[in-house]
Amino acid sequence: MRLRAASAPSGTAEGEVTAADPSERFDRRVRRLPHLGLGVSTEYGAHRSADTLDLARLVAEHPACVRFLECGVEVAKGLDEDMRRWAGAGRPTTYHFLDLNLDEPEDFDPAWMAAVMEFLEVLRPAWICGDAGLWHFGPRDRGHMLLLPPILSDASATALAAGIVRLREATGREVLPENPPGQVFLGDLHILDFFARVAERADTGVLLDLAHLAIYQRAMGFEVTDGLDGFPLERVVEVHVAGGRERVHEGLAWIEDEHGPEPIADTWTLAERVIPRAPELRAVVFECERNTNGAVGAGFARLAGLMPAGAR
Ligand SMILES: [Fe+2]
Question: What residues make up the domain containing 139?
Answer without folding.
Answer: 41-304
